Here is the input.
Amino acid sequence: MLRFDLRRLILLLALTAVLLAVINGFYSGYQVQRDILIRNTLEAHRVYAAKVAYNTEVFLRATQQNLRVNAERLVEHMDDPAALQRELDLQQRSSDSFNNLVVFDERGVVRAATALPQLVGRRPESPGAHEALARQSPLISEPYRAVTGQLVVMISQPLFDRARRYRGYVGGSIRLREKNILHGLLGEHYYRDGSYLYVVDGKGRLIFHRDPARIMQDASRNPVVAAVMRGQSGARPVTNTQGVAMLAGYAYVPSAHWGVVSQRPRAQALAELDQLMLTMAKYAAPLLLIIIVVVWWLSLQIARPLRQLAREAAAMDSHGATPRIEAVRSWYFEAQQLKQALLVGMRAMQQQLNRFRQESNTDALTGLGNRRELDSVLDDWKYSRQPFAVLMIDIDFFKSVNDSYGHDTGDQVLTALAQLMRDSAREGDVVCRMGGEEFVMLLPGADAIGAERVAERLCARVEAYRVPGLPALTVSIGVAAGIADETPEALLREADDALYQAKQQGRNRVVLAAV
Here is the structure.
């Protein structure tokens, strides 16, 4: 099973938080910037479409006004073909708004023409001519194919004489695919970002478009075109009839019932944002790397005291664990609390262990060391080659005390004699109860003479001691002093042999083991 240590968990958590924050920042920034970019693009194209539509409306109204003024002079020459032609030529030269000016009489017959003199005397069968003749009012026709095959729009003004009789009309044709003022307004734009402009007529047909092959195609299914056909202006995202997502602004031209649409492919608009995000990522990468390094370093600093405390806690029963834990640099609150808890726990455990050890090495009745304590001391001295002497002590006739006075009295005797032995021992001497009425004193560094002197003094003190209600007590002591290379076990046997001799010789005496 995969396991993570605290440092890796902190690092993973911190890096996850940092990366999520970065991703969230980039995502939020992208969404906000995208919305701003889309909104600004829509607004820019709305403003541009409105400006073009306004200029077109101004041009068309000015052109109609110009025709209305000229119509008053033309009607005066309707009965003089030569004068009519001169006046019409003069008007053509004075303005480049039209590609051709034509005067029709009330029957629709051409009376004068500037660019196409061959039309004079003929009755053209064009939609614009029929519509102007039928309506007898100022008119901007729908785009149509003229007899020359060119796509034109005709702006006409009726001719009425002083008696208000209808005498015909003057029409100015504008070729939509040739250079003229209207073409300059609607057909020439200098975008460099993929944007383009197109114009539709009142039926939703394309009359200006950057792709000539699409002229007069029906685009009424386009939601923007449908909106502008209803006389609306504004901006919106849209998918055009070619299936391309666009950001479009649109405006209505009232006098001609046209719609002007300025748009940019959404993908190209957002490509700038993609480049912006890449640039942001490039500038953010060094800072992100610094953050990762700082997070890594902080995770090390946070995890180090906990890792050290965990390692020492796992080895708290080893020598020197407490100083090592105290040396851990716990620089923040939780680590300091954990360190203090470990130290308190270790001290309590050590005290408990010491108490258990002391209890396991102590004779419960007398408080002296027991056989386990004796063996432990002998092992230590054997390892350190400590010279020592042994006093093997036995209470004389102790069985009769138990039999005559009871075990409680016997226990009092044992406790009292144990205290006498403590009082007789030197500093550093070890006094143990071997079991029953037998005791051992270990005298480190003592020679045979010194040990014998201690034994004699103890023997005298015991004999002089009185337990109420009991006869005088005595002890027999066997003494043995260590020599070079002699083992503790051998020394104990010698002291035990000397004790046996003391008992054989009449008790209440000290016998020194033979060297």
About this structure: Residues 40-274 form a domain with the Beta-Lactamase fold (CATH 3.30.450.20). The longest helix spans residues 6-74.
